[in-house]
Amino acid sequence: QAISFEERDAAPYDQEAVQAAQQKKAGDTQKPACSCPGIRVQRMRTVPFGGGAALTSAAVSSLAQWPCQIKLVPVDAPYLDDADLLIAADCAAYAFGDFHHRFMRGRITLIGCPKLDARDYAEKLTQIFRAHRIGSVTVARMEVPCCSGIERAVKQAVQNSGQNIPVSVVTISTDGNIL
């Protein structure tokens, strides 16, 4: 016999308990539960462009912090204090060849894909904007429709935070041009 059934009494459905469990689960996603060294928060030393560092075929990374995935960045990460942010669609850095120099230099970079991550970033970004003094936000998105989600989330988060944060949006075509 491969399958058996057991009948027993169960507690009645409790909508409030379900909602509390969902809120707790959502709160748990703000800080990863694992101790993977790949998600350790760190500020990186970057070489200022033009400050004696010549561009070569092996360009220097402009990534200023780790982690950079929106879903992994802790809301209380100290590198967010007084930061200018770049909130970019994952694909943008691959489509636009000079992405590091043009967009990342001098900014804290947060990346995500609203389609593949299957989440709305507005709530987490709202928490970040409320917890830190943010100088500006640049959104780098692709021209494809699914990328509108990252732009919408940023604008919604700024509105929800009650902060006056300047937002600029750059749209990149699939062939790597700025539209």
Largest sheet, if any? 4 strands, parallel
What shape does the CA trace take? elongated
Helix content: 25-40%
- Strand tally: 6
Rg: 20 Å
List segments where confidence is low: pLDDT < 50 over at least 5 consecutive residues: none
Strand order of the largest sheet: 4-3-5-6
Structural class: alpha/beta
Terminus-to-terminus distance: 64 Å
* Run of helices and strands: HEEEHHEHEHE
Quick check: average pLDDT? 85
Strand content: 15-25%
Helix segment count? 5
> Which assembly state applies to the chains in this document?
single chain
3D architecture notes:
27% of the residues lie in helices and 17% in strands. The mean pLDDT is 85. α4 packs across α5. It has 5 helices and 6 strands, in the order αβββααβαβαβ. It has a 4-stranded parallel sheet. Strands 1-2 form a two-stranded antiparallel ribbon. The protein has 179 residues and is an alpha/beta fold.
Comma- or semicolon-separated keywords:
single chain, 179 residues, alpha/beta, four-stranded parallel beta sheet, two-stranded antiparallel sheet, 6 strands, elongated
